[in-house]
Amino acid sequence: APMLAAVAPVVSAADLAICHMETVYGADGDYSGYPAFKSPPQVAAGLAATGYDTCSTASNHSLDDGADGIRRTLDALDAAGVGHAGSARTAAEANAPAWRKAGGAQVAQLAYTFDTNGHEPPEDSPWAVSAIDEQKIIADARSARGAGADVVVISLHWGTEWQTEPDEQQLGLAKTLTAAATGGRPDIDLIIGTHAHVPQAYEKVNGTWVIYGMGDQIAGPMFDYTGGFDGRGNQGSIGRFTFAPPARPGERWTVSRAEFIPQWYDIDEGRVVNLPDALERGADRDDYREAQESIREAVLSRGAANDGLTMAR
Question: Rg of the chain's alpha carbons, rounded to an integer?
C-alpha cells in the first residue's frame, strides 16, 4: 500500500494494530466523497498489507449507503483478513467484538459512534451500527472479559469536529468508562477516539489511557466549517501501547510504555509521512517540523507527558 508505506514498519511491527475505517465501500467504480462517502474496497487489502489487524467501523458515515454499504465494507475486510467491530450484517455480529491474540494476550475490540448523520438503520436491522451508550459499553466490555479477554479496547467515534480540546461528552464518558470495574479490575483497558479530524490529547484517566482523537491518517484537502482549508485535517498520530502481563492470573494487564508517533498526510504526493522518522533521516522541511510540533502540542495538552507518554518514530 504505497500511501501507507512510511508507517508500515511501525504498524506491521505491532503484535496488534488497530485502525479506524470511517467510510463504507462502494462497488464497481461507484465511489463518492462528501457528504455521503463510498471508498474503493481495495482499501481493505491495503490496510492488510500495511499490517493492520482490526478496524473500527462505527462512524457517523457508517450508514451513508445503508445496509449495502455496511455489507460491502465488512465483506471486503473479511476477504482481506482484517477484523472489524462497530457495524454489522447480522444481530449476532453486532454483539461480537473483534478478537485477536496478541503477544500472549487475548484482546477484544469493541467500537461505537455518537451519531450516523441522521441516517436511521434499516427497520429490520436496528443493530447495524453500534451507538454510544455508556451502560451498554460497560456491559459489552464485561461480557468480553467474561469470554476471556485479557485486554479490552474500546474505539469511540466522538467529539467535536475541528476542535483540538476534548468536549464535555468525551471528558465525561472517559471518566465513566475508565471508572467501571469488576472485582477491583477495570473493565476497559484502552480507549481510542476518532472523529474530530484534528489531533486531540492523550490522557491517563483513572489509570487508563485515553486517546481523545487520533486525527486523520488518509484524507484529501480538508476544509473546516468556514469553508477554509485547514492543514490540521491532514495531521494525526499513531498511539503505541506496550502491555505487560499481570503478576498473578486474573489481574490487569498494565501499560508499561505509552508512545505516540506524529504522522502527516502529504496531499500533493498522496502518502502518509512518519514525521519523526523523516526528520531524523534528514528531511529539511519546515512543513514537517511545523506539523510535528502542532501534533505534539495537541497530544500533550492534557499533561500526558507527566504520566510517561513519549514521542517515538
Answer: 18
In a 3-state reduction of DSSP, which class is residue 221? coil
Average pLDDT, the chain: 98
| Segment 194-215 mean pLDDT | 99
Q: Cell numbers at residue 206, please? A: 483513572
pLDDT of 1 reads 85
Segments of 158-313 assigned E as strands? 181-182, 185-186, 190-194, 202-205, 208-211, 235-244, 254-266, 271-274, 310-311
* Helix, strand, coil percentages for the chain (3-state, nearest 5): 30, 30, 45
CB 237 within 8 A of CB 262: yes
Cβ atoms < 10 Å from Cβ of 111: 31
Dist. CA 184–CA 75, nearest whole Å: 39
Closest to 57 measured CA to CA, from 39, 37, 83: 83
Mean pLDDT of 281-292: 97
**β-pairing verdict for 24-25 and 185-186:** unpaired
pLDDT of residue 64: 97
Closest CA to 198 of 231, 171, 225: 231
pLDDT greater than 90 at residue 35:
no
